[in-house]
Amino acid sequence: QVQLVESGGGLVQAGGSLALSCAASGRIFSNFAMGWFRQAPGKEREFVAAVRWPGGATDYADSVKGRFTISRDTKNTIYLQMNSLKPEDTAAYYCAAAYSSRWPTRDFDSWGQGTQVTVSS
């Protein structure tokens, strides 16, 4: 299976920006998706954004649309550029990979360990 490693979390003030990265290793298939989920203390995990191979189609949660941008490169790495951050964006952010042919999808198969994003007011 694919192994995923996130990086880039940290502390930022409200209104600021932060960028996350997720590097995938292992066997990479031609048709798959990678994305981001987040989980705040006491809350359920929620979908944030995803990008598909091939073609690069993207999908965003309504709560981040217009503020966050997901992107990919040719080395199976994805990025999440987070702008106009709000305190409610505070969460552990998890990178995920999906091997389903369905798109868009919320069913992901492999998960990273997470990286903490904290937005202060």
Strand content: over 45%
Number of helices: 0
Radius of gyration, taken over Cα atoms and rounded to an integer in Å? 13 Å
What's the total number of strands? 11
* Helix share bin: under 10%
Provide the descriptors you would attach to this structure in a database record.
121 residues; mainly beta; 7-stranded mixed beta sheet; 4-stranded antiparallel beta sheet; 11 strands; 0% helix
Write a brief structural summary.
Helices cover 0% and strands 52% of the residues.
Notes on the protein architecture:
The chain is mainly β. The protein is 0% helix and 52% strand. It has no helices and 11 strands. The chain has strands at 3-7, 10-13, 18-25, 32-39, 46-53, 58-60, 68-72, 77-82, 91-98, 110-111, 115-120. Strands 2, 4, 5, 6, 9, 10 and 11 form a 7-stranded mixed β-sheet that branches. A 4-stranded antiparallel β-sheet has the order 1-3-8-7, with no helix packed on it. Strand 4 (32-39) and strand 5 form a beta hairpin. It is globular and about 40 Å long. The model has no long low-confidence stretch (mean pLDDT 94).
Can you lay out the helices and strands and say which pair or pack?
Layout: E1 3-7, E2 10-13, E3 18-25, E4 32-39, E5 46-53, E6 58-60, E7 68-72, E8 77-82, E9 91-98, E10 110-111, E11 115-120
Parallel strand pairs: 2-11
Antiparallel strand pairs: 1-3, 3-8, 4-5, 4-9, 5-6, 7-8, 9-10, 9-11
